């Protein structure tokens, strides 16, 4: 779930794009990039690494211009290499740069079509490069000498007709401005913000509203599923629906784990949704064991904190910070390799013994995916002297791959794959394991917005709203399972 950002300002935007990326860092830790337009020139810098390591003063001084886009990457397709960092760039037609959050499921077919019909060469394994070339080809089809808004809306319509999957996209089109769009189901997020400066109105688009907050933009609204949005170089905002309305289905995992709690998505506060998840989970616990013996509720930092707090309050049990997080270690789940993830849990979290000794504790996590975190954390709680260790997950068991922008490609890697809850409980070594019900999770989010009642819940339910081409899951697992990534790293030396 990469982070994307675009700004059409009245003065240089390089520094603002950098700052905005730093608060989207939790969405992608592998690579980062910024592209700006400076007159008739595009300046682009991208590389592997965290935002703070990718850009130095010299790079920033070259990123001139009052229009730009930015990206931080968490790969879901192709390799982890620097050549697949974003924004991607094509010089024909017009000069177009693109940043993409999401994942396409018909990349192979598109790749073939681009080569055989559209005569375009794709240089990497990235689905985003394919998406850019579909958009560029459709822009080229217009035959215009200069890019127009009509051409761009037509190209967005064609992208919606050709591309299947999850995508929130920001592009820079030289001579026109920023063109942004979201897939027809609105699986991946994109929000618009406005800032009034002395020189006129300025616009920003971001994966999460937290980036708008930081930069002083007021959140206006989410980009609609299937909508095309253009902010011209002159700062005019144009919008058009570029696809027939389909079932709106934002990714529910954004609310569980991906997004920052201080973000608003689809007019729902992520923080409040997580509080409701905690309340629902507590109700389930009280229903199953009205006379439970839980003495303390302890979150597994960071993301589960909010849900754990509400859970403790609803249970009327003490909330305790039993694990301290090393603030210099990033998110473990979005690291590319399993051995790295395993090592990181220990490096990241340390137990405060006092909070565990002789106690019956309920640990809370937002989700259990591969079980990397829970297995180790339960063991740490026991080593710290806990009498009993229960574990509650604010999300239901993850049993199916995610194909829309979260790197969960292979069901066999999930601890819940082909296992009952009781078997998982045993495997991770918990005395009791409680999962959220899917209906309760859906309620927790939809309660924040009356118009929102459907979500992409594929990794819990196995239902894929876009339909999935035959053979896709097999290809995905073959290309992106942990062992495949490890083999790629070895062969690269
Ligand atoms: O079952 P697993 O495969 O371990 O995945 C789930 C864990 O990974 C995430 O934490 P992460 O460390 O990535 O980020 P956080 O600090 O935001 O909680 C998530 O919050 C769970 O704790
Ligand atoms: N997580 C994402 O949004 C990934 C974007 C794109 N599929 C890539 O791999 O770069
Ligand atoms: Mg976590």
From TrEMBL:
Q: Which cofactor does it need?
A: Mg(2+)
Asked if the record carries the keyword Magnesium, the reply is yes
**TM stretches of this protein:** none
Q: Which pathway does this polypeptide act in?
A: Purine metabolism; IMP biosynthesis via de novo pathway; N(1)-(5-phospho-D-ribosyl)glycinamide from 5-phospho-alpha-D-ribose 1-diphosphate: step 1/2
Q: Which GO terms describe its molecular function?
A: amidophosphoribosyltransferase activity; magnesium ion binding
Q: Which UniProt keywords apply?
A: Glutamine amidotransferase, Glycosyltransferase, Magnesium, Metal-binding, Purine biosynthesis, Transferase
Q: Where is the Glutamine amidotransferase type-2 domain?
A: 2-234
Query: Which reaction does this chain catalyze?
Result: 5-phospho-beta-D-ribosylamine + L-glutamate + diphosphate = 5-phospho-alpha-D-ribose 1-diphosphate + L-glutamine + H2O
One BP annotation, GO: 'de novo' IMP biosynthetic process
Instruction: Check the record and name the InterPro entries matching this protein.
Output: GATase_2_dom, Ntn_hydrolases_N, PRTase-like, PRTase_dom, PurF, PurF_N
> What Gene3D superfamilies does UniProt report for this protein, alphabetically?
3.40.50.2020, Glutamine Phosphoribosylpyrophosphate, subunit 1, domain 1
Q: Which PROSITE patterns match?
A: GATASE_TYPE_2
Active-site residues, Swiss-Prot/TrEMBL: 2
- UniProt-listed Pfam families: GATase_6 (PF13522)
Q: What is its EC number?
A: 2.4.2.14
According to the UniProt entry, where is the signal peptide? none
Q: Where does Mg(2+) bind?
A: 303, 365-366
Q: Kindly state what the record says about how the cofactor is bound.
A: Binds 1 Mg(2+) ion per subunit.
- Explain the purpose of this protein: Catalyzes the formation of phosphoribosylamine from phosphoribosylpyrophosphate (PRPP) and glutamine.
Family statement drawn from the similarity comment of this UniProt entry: In the C-terminal section; belongs to the purine/pyrimidine phosphoribosyltransferase family.
Q: What is this protein called?
A: Amidophosphoribosyltransferase
Q: What is the lineage of its organism?
A: Bacteria, Pseudomonadati, Pseudomonadota, Gammaproteobacteria, Lysobacterales
């Amino acid at each position: 779930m990469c982070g994307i950002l675009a700004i059409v300002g009245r003065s240089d935007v390089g520094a603002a794009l950098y700052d905005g990326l730093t608060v989207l860092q939790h969405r992608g830790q592998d690579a980062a990039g910024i592209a700006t337009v400076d007159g008739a020139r595009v300046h682009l810098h991208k590389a592997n690494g965290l935002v703070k390591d990718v850009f130095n003063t010299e790079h920033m001084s070259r990123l001139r211009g009052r229009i730009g886009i930015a990206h931080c990457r968490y790969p879901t397709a192709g390799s982890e290499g620097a050549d697949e960092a974003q924004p991607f760039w094509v010089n024909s037609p017009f000069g177009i740069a693109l940043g993409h959050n999401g994942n396409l499921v018909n990349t192979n077919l598109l790749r073939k079509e681009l080569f055989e019909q559209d005569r375009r060469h794709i240089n990497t394994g990235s689905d985003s490069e394919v998406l850019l070339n579909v958009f560029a080809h459709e822009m080229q089809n217009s035959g215009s000498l200069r890019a127009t808004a009509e051409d761009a809306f037509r190209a967005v319509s064609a992208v919606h007709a050709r591309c299947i999957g999850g995508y929130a996209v920001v592009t820079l089109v030289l001579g026109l401005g920023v063109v942004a769009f979201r897939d027809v189901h609105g699986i991946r997020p994109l929000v618009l913000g406005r800032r009034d400066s002395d020189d006129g109105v300025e616009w920003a688009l971001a994966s999460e509203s937290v980036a708008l907050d930081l930069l002083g933009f007021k959140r206006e609204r989410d980009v609609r599923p299937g909508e095309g949005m253009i902010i011209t170089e002159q700062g005019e905002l144009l919008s058009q629906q570029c696809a027939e309305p389909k079932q709106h289905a934002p990714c529910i995992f954004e609310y569980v784990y991906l997004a920052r709690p201080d973000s608003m998505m689809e007019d729902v506060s992520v923080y409040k949704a997580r509080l409701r998840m905690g309340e629902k989970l507590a109700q389930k616990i009280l229903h199953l064991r009205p006379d439970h013996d839980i003495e303390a509720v302890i979150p597994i930092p960071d993301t589960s904190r909010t849900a754990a707090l509400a859970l403790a309050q609803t249970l009327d049990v003490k909330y305790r910070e039993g694990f301290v997080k090393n603030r210099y270690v990033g998110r473990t789940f979005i690291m590319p390799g399993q051995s790295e993830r395993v090592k990181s849990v220990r490096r990241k979290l340390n137990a405060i013994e006092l909070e565990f000794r002789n106690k019956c504790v309920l640990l809370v996590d937002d989700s259990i995916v591969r079980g990397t975190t829970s297995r180790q954390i339960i063991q740490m709680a026991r080593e710290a002297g806990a009498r009993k260790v229960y574990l509650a997950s604010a999300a239901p068991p993850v049993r199916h791959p995610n194909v829309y922008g979260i790197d969960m490609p292979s069901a066999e890697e999930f601890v819940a794959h082909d296992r009952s809850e009781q078997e998982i409980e045993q495997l991770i070594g918990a005395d009791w394991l409680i999962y959220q019900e899917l209906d309760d999770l859906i309620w927790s989010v939809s309660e924040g917005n009356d118009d929102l009642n459907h979500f992409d819940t594929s990794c819990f339910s196995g239902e894929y709203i876009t339909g999935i081409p035959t053979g896709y899951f097999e290809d995905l697992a073959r290309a992106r399972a942990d062992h495949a990534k490890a083999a790629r790293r070895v062969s690269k030396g």
